[in-house]
Amino acid sequence: MAGRQGYDVVVDVDAEGDLGHTDLHDDLEFHDSTFDQPTSNNRNKPLPPSQQSPFLNQQTSSRGGAQSISRRYLWSLAFYQQFFDVDTSAILLRCRAALFPRQNFLDVLDGNPDLYGPFWIATTVVFILFMTGTISAYLAQKGKGHFAYDFELLGGAAGLVYGYTLVIPLGLWAVLKWFGSESANLMECWALYGYGNLIWIPVALVSWSPLSILNYAFVGVGFALSAVFLFRNLYPVVSATDAKTSRILLVVVIALHAGLAIAIKILFFAHQSPAAKGGSAGGAPDPIGDSERAGDAVAMLLGF
């Protein structure tokens, strides 16, 4: 108490002299802690960064995993299965829309292009071109000597049809992407060209006539119908580029399609074409004799 000498202690006392209940030990109770449970007031509050780290780590790790999964998925059959998942009614509807176009074919696809129809249409065109080209070659031979099948004609038909259906849409899509078109879709381009080949099936079935002018007329009609089909459906997509580029692309598309029609006529339905081996170099065809040999050629192809 030596350090407190010279000081007075002052105590302030309530005037009534009642300090209230001061025994704090009677109201002490233990309660469960709610620190680990989110309350209704802080449910929508963002969590601190320390608590967000597991989610961020999961997102970051899944990003790299998703890329590797997508790479594997791209090279798997399951990736391409979705483009063959169509029913018969959808295929028939699209074939009818290709032969009798009343609306934009891309609207008929409705964002769900398929490769099933284009594949089988192209395959059918290949075999019909081979069959009718063989008949045309038989007619050009005029019955001289033994007639042999030319399977190079089958390979030529496959290379022409499959190559045109695969490469031209791919190149068109790449050019459109190069010029900044956002509406270009590779699968839609393949579907458009694939279903556009449907017109060549009836054309090939009637173009093996010995009358060359009639064959030219059939191939010309097929070219006109399919060119209008391509022009009508590609114009909205190509127009996404500038005016000059769109005109050039449309001209190139029609020119390449004309090249396909000319190749079909010369390689498969011309009596003096490279497909007609053993044909005479000149002279007018004999319609009566060729008509008789046409029946023999059909019977030969059908195995009668």
Automatic annotation (TrEMBL):
The chain crosses the membrane at residues 119-139, 151-175, 190-209, 216-235, 247-268. InterPro entries: Yip1_dom, Yip5/YIPF1/YIPF2. GO terms for cellular component: Golgi membrane. GO terms for biological process: vesicle-mediated transport. Residues 23-34 have a biased composition (Basic and acidic residues). GO terms for molecular function: small GTPase binding. Its main location: Golgi. It is found in: Golgi apparatus membrane; Membrane. Residues 100-261 form the Yip1 domain. It comes from the Eukaryota. Keywords: Membrane, Transmembrane, Transmembrane helix. Residues 23-63 are annotated as: Disordered. The keyword Membrane applies. Residues 35-45, 52-63 have a biased composition (Polar residues). It is a multi-pass membrane protein. The keyword Membrane applies. Belongs to the YIP1 family. This is Protein YIP. The lineage of its organism: Eukaryota, Fungi, Dikarya, Ascomycota, Pezizomycotina.
